[in-house]
Design goal:
Number of helices: 12
Order of helices and strands: EEEEEHEHEHEEHEHEHEHEHHHHEEHEE
Radius of gyration: 20 Å
Shape: globular
Helix content: 25-40%
Oligomer: single chain
Largest sheet: 8 strands, mixed
Strand order of the largest sheet: 1-2-6-7-8-10-11-13
Distance between the termini: 40 Å
Structural class: alpha/beta
Number of strands: 17
């Protein structure tokens, strides 16, 4: 029996970027996909907005800000079908013809054909900053069903040769891709062509525990709750990243997407990561990027009570009580606020936002609420 499909907003705010989802639903069947419980995997993609309608909704949306990164098609893989590819190229051309110059990222596991490469390079030349995340983690067809791994690997040199910035998206970390052989196979290839890697553990949203424990039975341990962790890692992957072999010394590896984007876009951190344990101990950040953050962040424009009040009003919360600590750029809310609104407030004002958790929240708060990585040792 077909599952009922639950669509996400066409314009939505995630923890790293502004998501733009005019097409939703994916024909692929990745077992870990966060779209599974929404009925949006193994299904024909549905067009919810034309490219022109998408841009109109984006510019009119309360979340829009010219400094935010736009992530296109996070509720599908836009390279998966001819129809979605046509929508993608039309949207990129429409963005290129518009006044919008937000950085744009596209995330895919599918082959990137010549016409899409040409479209990306054409719009980059017109001044639209487009980059590509290639999601390649070494998982097999039993988990990532419908993915052509040879075509995925071939994307790396083709995009690199075309001058398209590539971020290697190494996620999720599962026991199945945590062996040294798999890790080395992935990294030997990706490090040749990508500007950096983003290594992300498994994220477990509140409604997906059964889905993930089907892949990783150890997470069903009643003494664990992976839903409150920032991310979940096999010990072997975690240790490999902590002791990165010297041959990858020049290849940046981040655990935070915001830092990878800052590095690729030539920006300083705006997500409150700089000089934290994640910055100092987890991210393998190149020296020029650390210098950029060290020189830029102390001189950010101060955030004021007026800034916070005005943006909360824009988000539809004009009377929400809060406390601002200007020195630490921290906003503490007295009442629960949806994650998407908290993320937008944080990104637009470059502040840290704390608030009580909304019990109806469907997504993982992770690091935003102080969640820490959960490291799982192998079973004896």
């Amino acid at each position: 029996m077909a599952r009922e499909r639950v669509f996400e907003p066409v314009i939505d705010q995630h923890d790293t970027w502004l998501a733009v989802n005019p097409v939703q639903g994916c024909p692929k069947g990745c077992a870990y996909c966060y779209l599974t419980d929404l009925g949006l995997t193994r299904t024909k993609p549905a067009v919810l907005a034309t490219p022109e309608e998408t841009i109109a909704q984006l510019l009119a949306h309360r979340y829009y800000h010219p400094d935010l990164v736009l992530a296109l098609y996070t509720c599908t893989d836009a390279l998966a079908t001819p129809a979605t590819r046509a929508h993608l190229t039309a949207l990129l051309d429409a963005l290129g013809d518009s006044a919008i110059r937000n950085p744009v990222c596209l995330i895919t596991k599918c082959a990137v054909p010549d016409d899409v490469v040409d479209c990306i390079t054409r719009n980059r030349a017109a001044g639209l900053p487009v980059l590509v995340y290639l999601s390649y983690s070494g998982l097999g067809a039993d988990i990532e069903q419908g993915i052509d791994r040879s075509a995925l690997r071939a994307n790396f040199p083709r995009l690199h040769a075309a001058g398209v910035p590539v971020i290697h998206y190494w996620r999720p970390a599962l026991p199945q891709n945590s062996t040294p052989a798999v890790i080395e196979h992935v990294m030997e290839w990706a490090a040749r062509y990508a500007m950096c890697s983003v290594a992300v553990g498994t994220k477990v949203k509140p409604s997906a525990l059964d889905q993930i424990t089907g892949l990783w039975p150890e997470l069903a341990d009643p003494n664990l709750d992976p839903r409150v962790a920032d991310s979940v890692w096999p010990r072997s992957t975690w240790d490999w990243l902590r002791h990165l072999p010297d041959r990858y010394g020049d290849h940046p590896v981040f655990q935070t997407n915001s830092c990878a984007l800052a590095h690729v876009l030539g920006r300083a951190d705006r997500a409150g990561v700089w000089n934290t344990p994640t910055c100092l101990d987890a991210n393998r950040c190149p020296a020029p990027q650390r210098t950029r953050c060290r020189r830029t962040i102390p001189h950010q424009r101060p955030v004021t009570e007026t800034d916070v009040a005005q943006h909360l009003a824009r988000l539809g919360h004009p009377h929400l009580p809060y406390t601002l600590s200007p020195a630490t750029r921290t906003v503490v809310l007295d009442q629960p606020l949806q994650l998407r609104d908290r993320h937008n407030l944080a990104q637009v004002l470059a502040v840290t936002v704390r608030s009580p958790e909304d019990p109806s929240e469907r997504y993982w708060p992770g690091r935003l609420s102080g969640g820490q990585p959960l490291i799982i040792d192998p079973q004896p």
